[in-house]
Amino acid sequence: MTSRPPSRRLSDQLAAAAADYQAAVVIPHCPQCSNSCCRLDPLVLELEWKQVRTLWRIDEARAAFDRRLAAGQGPQEIRAGNGLYYAHGKPCPAFDEAAANCRVYGQAVKPAGCSDFPVYEDGGVVVADLRCEAVDRVGLGVALGRAIGPDYRIVADADPDFPFLVSLEARRKRPAKR
Length: 178
Ligand code: SF4
Ligand code: SF4
Fold this sequence. Notes:
The chain is of the alpha+beta class. It has helices at 8-26, 49-55, 62-70, 112-116, 137-148; strands at 45-47, 78-81, 84-87, 95-96, 101-102, 119-122, 125-129, 152-158, 165-172. The longest helix is centred in the first third of the chain and has 19 residues, at 8-26. Bound molecules: iron/sulfur cluster (2 copies).
């Protein structure tokens, strides 16, 4: 049976509830996180060229940088692909280890993936990445359920290939039989 796509209003409510959860539960934990996602291990950071250029302080043209990267002479933690760049295995240069915070917080150069991690709404479903130690799957479900009201229940499913990725979907409750 195919379920109907969620309404725009429901998607907006879930997106707002996911953002509220990030603000209330995740972000306050970041300064004392035992394995910050900004160390990019195991996480991979997706970047556009202007973000690479700014964060890694590259002053050469993109073509020259790409050639250097392809020759194995660029930053070892960066790979190129599909017109984008992927950083992994070394802390993000914008990460201030001592203060445990992001030096580009609130700035346009901060990659979108940083703001989405670890809880975000996509197509009417909230995705949670349990590799973040601040995320509590049950608590998140309760928070989402509270936000969308008593007509819905939250159903959680782990990705079969990446079980740390959990989708939380709102399903309308069936009316009680008389
Ligand atoms: S893994 Fe989670 S708690 Fe740790 S720094 Fe990243 S978002 Fe914050
Ligand atoms: S840009 Fe900021 S939030 Fe994103 S990985 Fe780097 S330090 Fe972390």
